[in-house]
């Protein structure tokens, strides 16, 4: 076929296709043509109704659109908040991951340390088991040593008992010799005591006059700082010894009121004083729980007697031998000391503290006054209680023995002063005064050397003098401005000395 024929055939085919398409389109548009052919009035009412419906639908669409817009805004805000929260959580997660990494590192380090500690613990446990086995071995050795030590101690104690028996035999011989010497001395002493007037046995000494009633303050001495609790005279001398809270001991010349010399070395307040009958040694009871012994000539401490566990409030030296000293402390003990050896030879334990004590004239008995108000007598060698009597309703503060040794004066916190016969412990006299009030548990009263008068200080600073025979007050001395703690009479008959809480010492003639 030629090209023209081919073109004609193609044109024909195209025309057929166009006609066929035209017919199809006419069939499709037929309903529209029919509808358009209807009357215009009926179509207008339908369109109006459709328009109204469409308007209603349009309004509903607007409402739905507004709701959707609001919801969209809320969701957008939520989305932003969630986005912010997400970012924060992501940051927190990053920090936690960082902390987790650090924690893992620390955990690894701790695990390594734990393994090291476990190894060290195992080493310590092995050492512990080894030491435990060594300890068991040492315990066995210690028990064996203790048994051996006990056996040695028993042997040593047996030997000491044998030594003590030998020493007791020697002491018995010594005491027998002393008794013989005392028997010779008592005869001389009996010659020296005439009508209550005591004369010295020392060759070349003068006879002593009868005690006079003091009335005038001869000297007012500012002796100690903080108070003066104890004073006493040297035997057969006018020298006065004082001890105070300033821890010093001072010796005064009462004729001039001047200080002779001072003794130092006490570690506490001086609560009581005693002197040997040869005036060589002074003994001080101290609040430091000790007793101190001075050599008067050298001024040095010869002994420090230790053994009490509380303050030592009373001390006395035997009137027969300068060797024995008795002391009382607030540890409920009375101790007897040997000054030559410097240690305790006997200890008496009692339930009531002792405030004051003194030796009997024969040196075999200790008289003690206690807080419970009882006066007790003790055997110095055995430490046994010989007798006791209720002397006061309150604590005894002072004990003073008469020159002849037959009468003992007690003073108490009940403000009474009683005289007892030391042989029967019967009351020989009771002395009291309106205004006389005992100042402390260690207020010391005294008997005159001729055993005719009693002197006692009071809390108001007064000193009361009683006549023993008349049981009346014969003098009241007023010079102190503080409570009077101690009174003591010179063995020469005068002067009388007193001390108070301000450390003032007065001498009276």
Helix content: 25-40%
Query: Which structural class matches the secondary elements?
Result: alpha+beta
Radius of gyration equals 60 Å
Widest sheet, order of strands = 3-30-29-28
Keywords:
single chain; 509 residues; alpha+beta; 4-stranded antiparallel beta sheet; 37% helix; elongated
What do you see in this structure?
The chain is 37% helix and 32% strand. It is of the alpha+beta class.
Question: What's this model, at a glance?
Answer:
The protein has helices at 3-28, 30-37, 40-192; strands spanning 193-194, 197-198, 217-222, 228-233, 239-244, 249-253, 258-263, 270-275, 281-286, 291-295, 300-305, 312-317, 324-329, 333-338, 343-349, 354-359, 365-370, 374-379, 385-390, 396-401, 407-412, 417-421, 427-431, 446-447, 453-457, 462-467, 472-478, 484-489, 496-500, 504-508.
Give the SSE layout.
Elements lengths: L2 H26 L1 H8 L2 H153 E2 L2 E2 L18 E6 L5 E6 L5 E6 L4 E5 L4 E6 L6 E6 L5 E6 L4 E5 L4 E6 L6 E6 L6 E6 L3 E6 L4 E7 L4 E6 L5 E6 L3 E6 L5 E6 L5 E6 L5 E6 L4 E5 L5 E5 L14 E2 L5 E5 L4 E6 L4 E7 L5 E6 L6 E5 L3 E5 L1
Antiparallel strand pairs: 1-2, 3-30, 4-5, 5-6, 6-7, 8-9, 9-10, 10-11, 12-13, 13-14, 14-15, 16-17, 17-18, 18-19, 20-21, 21-22, 22-23, 24-25, 25-26, 26-27, 28-29, 29-30
